[in-house]
Design brief:
Length: 303
Amino acid sequence: MPDASAAIRRFNRFYTREIGVLDGNLLKSGFSLAEARILYELGQTPKMSATDIGEKLNLDRGYLSRMLRSFQKKRLISRKTDAADKRRSHLSLTEKGRTTFHQLDRRSSQAATGMIANLPPGAVNALLGAMETIQGILGKTAAAPNYILRRDRVGDLGLVASRQGLIYEQEYGWDKTYEALVAKILTEFVGRDDTVNERAWIAESHGTILGSVYLMKEDAETARLRLLYVEPQARGLGLGKKLVSECTAFAREAGYKRIVLWTQSTLTAARKLYVNEGYKLMKEEPHHSFGKDLVGETWELLL
C-alpha cells in the first residue's frame, strides 16, 4: 500500500518535528528521546534490569549498554546485583537521577499542555480520540472501556452515515446504496422526532464516535432495532452488547411487547450479539442489495 506508506511517513516527519526529537536534545534537557524514555521507565518502575528495559523499549543491547554506562558516570542510576541471580542486576535512579527525571517529566507535561493550549475544546477531543485510535490499532490492545453513551445531537447523522458506508464497503464490499439507505433511515428518525417511543444511543470517546444504534417505532407493540455498528478499534470492549441491551431496556420501559430487526447472514458478530440477547431468527430471504447477493434475516425478541 504505497499511498498508506507515504501518509504514515509524512505523519511521522510532522509529529517528530512537532515534539522536538530531531536534534537529540529533547525539551532542551540534554537527553535524547531514548535516554529520556529510559529515565521515565526507571522513574515509574524502580529496580528494573537492563534486559527488562531493552525488551520494553525494543532497544539494541549495545546501544542501551552505552546509555546506561553514561547514566552511571553522571550518577543518575545505580546498580545492585540480584541476590538470587548474580548474573542479573537491578537498576534504580539515584537521588540526582530522581531529580533529573522529575524535571524532565515536568517539562514534558508543560510541552504537551502547550501543544493544545490554543485549540478549541472540540479540536482537543478530536485529537485525543485520534491518538487513542492509533494506539489501539497499532498496539493491538483491548483497552478498558473508555466511552460514554449519549443521545444524538447535531453533527451525528452525517458522521454515522459516512462511517457505516465506509466500514461496510471496506469489510463486506457493499456499495454506496447502503450509505444512502442509512441516510434515509436517519432522516426518517429525525423527522419523526418521537422522543417518547424512539431513541438513539451514540457511543463516544474524547469527541470521537465509536458506535451507535437506533430504536424506532414499528407499531404500538413493536419496536425496530436499526443501524447497529461499532468502530473497528472499539470492538472487543463489550460496546456492541451494551448498545443492544440499552435498546432492550428502553423498549420494555416504553411498553413495547417485542423488538424486531433485519440483518444479513454474513454479519456474524452482530448475529451473535442478537442470539446472546435472546433474539430468535424468524425468517430468511435471499436478495440482491448494496451490490451483493445477500441473505436477509428477520429476528425477533419478545419482551
